[in-house]
Amino acid sequence: MAGRFDLQGRHGKSRVRVSRVWRRPAEAGGHLFVEWSVAVSVVSDCLPSYTSDDNSAIVATDSIKNTVYVKAKECTEVVSMEEFAVILGRHFTSLYSQVGNGGDGNFSQPFMVCVLLYKSSGARPFMKVFLFEQVSEATVTIVERPWERVAVDGKPHSHGFKLGSEKHTTEVNVKKSGSLLINSGIQGYSLLKTTQSGFEGFVRDRYTLLPETRERIVATEVTAWWRYPFEHISQLPSKPFCFTQRYQDVKKVLADTFFGPPDVGVYSPSVQNTLYLMAREVLTRFPDIASVQLRMPNLHFIPVNLGGKENPGLVKFADDVYMPTDEPHGTIEATLSRANSKL
Ligand SMILES: O=c1[nH]c(=O)c2[nH]c(=O)[nH]c2[nH]1
């Protein structure tokens, strides 16, 4: 018996690199500059293109790329990358229905539009039928290159930037119905402290060699994702809420909790506990964040002990010289959500 198959597909364009400058006068804070790597992926009714040579319902990924540049141009007011991702998501999920139904987007099938075309020669008009694709869903992912304004002689420069390290990311999913998911995050946020960290009381089995300690270096490269509670386009906050500012706030709360007060720090009994406290602080401080996921590899700094059988204790380690490693590393991650939130 011939098999029956269920086909699902999506297509889009990845790594569309776009920069946008908003040229404000120096008195208003100077130029704003962003560099984004955008990926757009749409779910659409173009299954015949997979199963046959019929491409008539495909929005070309080249057009998707061009749309990113056009929409960036149209953003004459400063936008955050979350807002830009929503603009793109709405564009792709509404564009093809607007032609036929005035924009309320309630088609469940691909639809046809009949257009009467008139020839300039005055010949009889003829009718052409277009089949428009239904984009039911769009996912837009953006990673920002961290250009930061420089300061010269302690004064913020009006149009000079240097590259920083950690990156702001976002992933936005928009459905034709208007339903929405906005996740934002941080990638490559490297944090280290030279003391106030230990690891004791863990399981000892016959392969355990790791000594217990209350004194070690702890280092990690945080990847964070958090979810905003806006579940429909209509719930999007109006202006004063700024996703970019919230990103800066979350970054600060994560670091402040990791390090503790500047003079004394805070003791970390495990990466697990520090991760939890960081996530909890984010949810406590920001009611507009519904859940937060943290991934914190434990990047080991191994105490160097020279010696061996012949020369035991040739050079004794005294919390001073370490061998930095990034492979292998511990992998520690958790998600913290509000108890009443639906994930
Ligand atoms: O903070 C830590 N958590 C662990 O789970 C772990 N495992 C390990 O070997 N060292 C550490 N450190």
TrEMBL record:
Annotated EC: 1.7.3.3
GO CC, alphabetical: peroxisome
Binding site for 5-hydroxyisourate: T61, D62, F199, R216, V271, Q272, N298
Catalysed reactions, semicolon-separated: urate + O2 + H2O = 5-hydroxyisourate + H2O2
One annotated GO biological process: urate catabolic process
GO molecular function: urate oxidase activity
Protein location: Peroxisome
UniProt keyword annotations, A-Z: Oxidoreductase, Peroxisome, Purine metabolism
Listed Pfam families: Uricase
SUPFAM superfamilies: Tetrahydrobiopterin biosynthesis enzymes-like
Involved pathway(s): Purine metabolism; urate degradation; (S)-allantoin from urate: step 1/3
Record: residues binding urate: T61, D62, F199, R216, V271, Q272, N298
Main subcellular localisation: other
Family: Belongs to the uricase family.
NCBIfam families, A to Z: urate_oxi
Protein name per the record: Uricase
Source organism (scientific name): Triticum turgidum subsp. durum (Durum wheat)
